[in-house]
Please model this.
Amino acid sequence: MVTPENAVICFAGGKGGTGKTTVAANIAASLAKQSHTVTYLDCDVEEPNGHLFLHPHIERRQRVTVPVPKVDINRCTGCGKCAETCQFQAITVVNKKVLVFPELCHSCGGCRLVCPENAIAEVPQEIGTVEIGHAGNIRFVQGQLDIQQVKTPPTIQAVKQHIPENGIAILDAPPGTSCPVVETLQKVDYLVLVAEPTPFGLHDLQLVVEMARVLHLNFGVVINRAGWGDRNTYDYLQKENIPLLGEIPNDRAIATAYTRGELAADTLPQYRDLFTQIAQTILQKTSSTRELCKN
Model:
C-alpha cells in the first residue's frame, strides 16, 4: 500500500456542480478508513460546503485579517506620493485630503513606504474566519469569507496555513480557473480534476487542464456521473494522454445520499471499494510524481 507521509492533494473542477466537493470528501473519508492521517481543508471560502457532508465538530475559530493603510492627518501634507504609488486606486488625494478605500487595498504596503512624512500606518481589517475542528478521525479546516468581502486569496492562504507537516492534506479548491483557484493550487503535490462527461463538462475541463499545464502541475481526472452524456470527454483524455483516475457512476443512490448530506463511501456499501480504489490510484500517482521530481 502506498503511504505518502505528507502529500498535499487538491481537488478542482472547471465549474461548479461537477461533484468536486463530494468526491473530495468521499476520498478523504476513504483514506481515513485506511488508517491514513487526513486533513480536509475547504479552500472554497466564498461558499464552503464540505461541512455539509463531513459534519465536523468545530473546536475553534480564527479571524482572518489583512493590513490596510490608516493616515495620520496631523502628519500628512497631502503630497500625493501614496496615490501615485498605489496601482489599485485604493488610496487617493483630493484637495490635499487623503481618501482610503480598504476594499481595493492589496496590502502591499507601498503607500506606507513612500510616505515622506511617515504619516501612514497599517491597521488590521477583518475579512473572514477560519474554522478548525474534527469530523470523526478527519481533521477539518474551512475558510469563510465575510459578506461583502472580496479578498479571497488571503483567506485561502489562512486556510492553507493549517496544512500539516505530516499526513495527507485534501484541499477542496473553488470552482473555475480564477485567482482563488490558482492560489489554492500553489505548492500542491498532485491535482485531481473532477469532470462530467458532457459537452459543458468537457469545455470547462479543457480550461482547467490548460491552467494546470501553465502551472506545471501533475494531474489526473475523475469522471463523475459516468454513464450519461457522451464519450467525447474520454476521447479527449486519451488524446491528451491524461490519466483517468476513476469513474463514479451516475447512480440515483449516490444522488440521494448527496441530498441527505451523506457520503456514499460511508452509507453505500457497494461503492466503498470503488472509492478505496480511486483513493489508492491518487496516492500512487502522487508518489510517482514525487519520484519524477526527485529524478
